[in-house]
Amino acid sequence: MSSAAEPSGLPHISQANAAGAEEATDPGEARPGNGRPLPEATIARLPVYLRALYTLAERGVGTVASDELAAAAGVNSAKLRKDLSHLGSYGIRGVGYDVDYLVYQVSRALGLTQKWPVVIVGAGNLGRALANYGGFVSRGFRILAVLDANAEVVGREIGGVTVRHVSDLEEVVAEGSVAIGVIAVPASAAQAVCDRMVAAGVTSILNFAPLVLTVPEGVDVRKVDLSIELQILAFHAQRRFAERVGQVPGSAAAEV
Amino acid sequence: MSSAAEPSGLPHISQANAAGAEEATDPGEARPGNGRPLPEATIARLPVYLRALYTLAERGVGTVASDELAAAAGVNSAKLRKDLSHLGSYGIRGVGYDVDYLVYQVSRALGLTQKWPVVIVGAGNLGRALANYGGFVSRGFRILAVLDANAEVVGREIGGVTVRHVSDLEEVVAEGSVAIGVIAVPASAAQAVCDRMVAAGVTSILNFAPLVLTVPEGVDVRKVDLSIELQILAFHAQRRFAERVGQVPGSAAAEV
DNA sequence: CCGACTTTGTGCATTCGTTCACAAACAACG
DNA sequence: CGTTGTTTGTGAACGAATGCACAAAGTCGG
Fold first, then answer.
1. CA of B60 vs C1' of C15, distance in Å?
2. Cα–Cα distance for residue pair A209/A196, rounded to 1 Å
3. DSSP state of A224
4. Cα(B179)–Cα(A256) distance, rounded to whole angstroms?
5. pLDDT tens digits for B70-123?
6. Among A189, A204, B15, B132, which residue has the least CB neighbours within 10 Å?
7. Is A111 on the interface with B (CB under 8 A)?
8. Secondary structure letter of residue B163 according to DSSP
9. Backbone φ and ψ of B151, nearest 5°
10. Residue B250: CB partners within 8 Å, gap ≥ 6?
């Protein structure tokens, strides 16, 4: 239903595919879709585009112009075009982008055409939220195991898998060739879990614990801090109030 | 409270305070600690510094050099110094920064010297995780209410407050002069909750639902997407694997 | 009181990211 | 087949952020 219908309107797809620009190094080309560094800022936005594209596809939209997609993703249209241009030339001038095709290209660029096995350590509220999170389970990732140190929760089922004890970490990583680990434990336990992950061979770690992890060279750590964004929000709110009142905040909320 | 003792070692504090650079517009000065725009990138890092500072303070550290603090926060020391210099000149050359004093200054810059009342909508796993999250409750924020549409969870206690029905949203916002709202509901319900928050007078919204919210001018929305970081991680993991195998990206490997 | 030493704060160069504005490319239509 | 209209892809100007490297400013020991 989505956008599989609309075969006649997409001559460029077969063309682009037939052109052989898919995998092989395109000689004479400015190698746009292949071995270009791909700016970090662009990488950070691709997931947003991807989500917007999925939404459009579900709604049955077959083709989308950069203006519309940009609006749906909440960015400038010029920025969107430049971002996508780094992946390659996948649009049709005068028409726009084919939604399904772009979904595929963005997914491929992000490395989501395969399903990455993920292990989550920590089955507290956050770990449970992650395991049940749509964006995790759906495209690109497969939760191989959820681990916890608390014997209380071991054995329960969360997000389709049964919680195992954290002592199984090395075993799980080895068995499933897990490269991505998610840390959703309290800050006090995070570094230890991290060390064990690294020792077991995990090379990419997503850290939700509020502390800076120390890892050896070659291991990629990204952190999501639930409170940092809130603090940034507070900063802007304060500034807005200060402007309005002409004073430091305090009149509005502090007295209550 | 840890390093509150150390009165003799801080001659500069009284000096800085006495200098009157605290609140009033300092004439002739380049107004460093006052009405300077304060770069967005700096704002985003201040919470990280603040956390590192709290950790140091708990450990009883009274003074810290930019190198150490930078290491604890995971950034370059030059960057740290430049960031802090935007707040004012709060270090002592040859010594470093007083931890407690810097905690206060960073908190003040972020607007966290007061406790912002926050309302959380959505008492699922994520909402519960947020309500129990240390960084939320501790300094700077006070969870005024947790709301949910599910009658099942209404009445339960989460993070020190009793869950109320989402229909009380307007009432809660008005009563508590709430300026910050957190959305932790499924994507399908998020825009509706957002609209009601805005209508009730909330001007800062932290969105955990995986969609782009539409808000009128003057409302500040920030989003935390739990899966975006994971996807960025996947990208780098893919690139690393591809390099190792000598597949797709050839330029990166060739450059090294 | 002075000289050696340490660490901050910042001017400057460079890199990275954003935005504008427009030519090239394509579809649509007569 | 040519003309018109639309939208992409990108060169170029601009702005923001990073990192270097060093002078200024302070401490500390004698």
1. 39
2. 15
3. -
4. 12
5. 999 999 999 999 999 999 999 999 999 999 999 999 999 999 999 999 999 999
6. B15
7. yes
8. E
9. -60, -20
10. A25, A35
